[in-house]
Every structure is written in C-alpha cells, then in structure tokens.
C-alpha cells in the first residue's frame, strides 16, 4: 500500500480511487499495510537484523531490507514454493523452517522482532518471555492483538502444541454478530482452528502480551496498540530522546478513535459478507438437491407413461 493508493483521483481520472480500492484484497490482513509504522521504527532506531516470525507470502520480508536492515531471518515452517524462490533470490533474506519459539533460540539477537506466526497464548507468551529476557533493548512488532485473536486462541494445523497448552478448538470460526463460533464465520478452511470459548486465562494473543509484561523483570517496557487491520502492537523500552519521540508518534495512532471505528466497521462488514457467502452456498446445494429430485420424478413419470400396461 503506497501513498498514491489513497488519492481522490481528479476530474480527468474520476475512477482512480475506486481502481485502487478494487486492486486491494477484499480482506486486508498483511503487516505490509503498516509500512508507515515500519518507516517510523527505522527512522528512530538502528535496525540491522530482523527476525520475522510468520512470513506467509513474504510480502513484508523485503520491506525490512528496503528500509535499511541488512539481514532478515524469515521464520516460516510451511513455506510455499514461491516463498522459497523469493527468499533464495533476495540477498539478505534467510529462510528458517524451524517453528517459533524454538527457532528464536538458534538465531542471533535482533534489533527488531516481528511476531505474526501461531496466534495463540502458549506460543506468543513463550516467544515474548524469550525475547524480553535475551534482547532487552529490541523492538517487537506484534500482529493480531485485536479481534479475533485478542482473547481467543487460534491454532495453525497440525498444531505442534501439546494438548495441555491448547483450549478445546473447532474448525468453525468467530463472527462479530454473536459470541459463539459458527461455520459461517472467520474459518481457516482447514489451515487453522479457533478456541471454542473466548476469554478467561491463558487464552488469546493480547492476554499473552499482558502476562509476559507482568512477568518481565524490567518494568519499563511500553506497549503501543494500533487499532487497525486486526491490531498491531509495538513493544519497546524507551531509552533516549529519539525513543521518546517515537513513543509520542505511535501514541497518535494508538489514540485514534477514527482508526478504531474503521476497524470495527471493517470486521462487521467482512463477517457479514462471510455469512452471506455461506448462506448462498447452502441455498445453491439445496437447489441442486431439488433439481436432482425433479429429474428423478421426471424419469419415473416417463417410465410409467411408456412402460408396458398390464
Ligand atoms: C498471518 S500469516 C503471516 C503474515 C505475514 N506476516 C504478513 O503480514 O504478510 C501467519 C504465518 O505464520 C506461520 N506460522 C504458523 N505457526 C508458526 C510458528 N510456530 N512459527 C512461525 N511461523 C508460523 C503460518 O504458516 C503462516 O504462514
């Protein structure tokens, strides 16, 4: 997402904004949308090494190099062939196929960690406990601190977590229209499951962050939560005037009621679209079944009409 994506168009090109709108995916979910936040981080901190946990398409990996990093360790246990090629072709990107948090211990400490892998309490708490202890001056960017993972675990499948570290889960997904999971909700179509119940202890990504901060030996860590695109957090310990300036700039995003209102509207609209899609598919299969029945009765009628009269 670049600045020109936000222009109003002109009287000679009145469709420019709509053109950009339809070029975006229907559901924005990548951290690449937070480019301006990453620009701020790189402006205010020296960042050479990045550990990126949860890479998926690799849409964001090269951005860190573009902004000044020299090495990006891309931790992705399920890399697609395209991702393998993209990483192999770009100097500075290194694929790590060990899942996090185990992968973290084998990598050098980084100036920036991106946590966007398995979105559940056990994984994120373990990742943060390790980072806050071993990289006390680092920056951490966390994704999915808001709905649906803030207070409800999600587990990529097959989950490597032993059962005591998982809540009972379902392939059904959350919706904002009621509190229970539904097959018409935000499902992973087989790639992940969601905890059946939201809330309580040891459930959700934001709960993991709160507990890791409570357990941290140093109380000066600050979390800024940007209420957009499923919620992004920036965690660091302000140590100098540049850090204080970064803090002030991030607070503007954190305190934006406008962003929060737009995010709530976005997830309400999107889960309504999911529900309508689900209902349309159910109606289609009902109509298919009716058409089969009609064909069957027609054939039966023909047989009775043309069959031998006894
Ligand atoms: C939401 S996607 C990441 C999106 C990417 N960061 C972006 O913004 O474009 C989550 C990714 O984490 C990966 N993943 C799941 N469990 C993981 C783990 N334990 N360690 C690292 N990555 C994991 C999944 O395979 C998936 O590709």
Bound molecules: S-adenosylmethionine
The radius of gyration is 24 Å
Number of helices: 9
**Chain-averaged pLDDT:** 95
User: How many individual β-strands?
Assistant: 10
- Could you state the CATH homologous superfamily? Vaccinia Virus protein VP39
Distance between the termini: 77 Å
Look at the helices and sheets and give the structural class. alpha/beta
Description of the structure:
By secondary structure, the chain is α/β, with parallel strands linked by helices. It has a single domain, classed as 3-Layer(aba) Sandwich (Rossmann fold). Helix content is 41%, strand content 14%. It is built from 9 helices and 10 strands. It has helices at 16-23, 35-44, 61-66, 81-89, 102-105, 121-134, 205-215, 241-254, 257-306, and strands at 49-53, 71-75, 93-96, 112-115, 139-143, 154-156, 169-170, 192-195, 222-226, 232-236. Helix 2 (35-44) runs antiparallel to helix 8 and helix 6 (121-134) packs parallel to helix 7. The longest helix has 50 residues, at 257-306. The chain binds S-adenosylmethionine (SAM). S-adenosylmethionine binds at residues 30-32, 53-57, 59-60, 75-78, 99-100, 116-118, 123, 156.
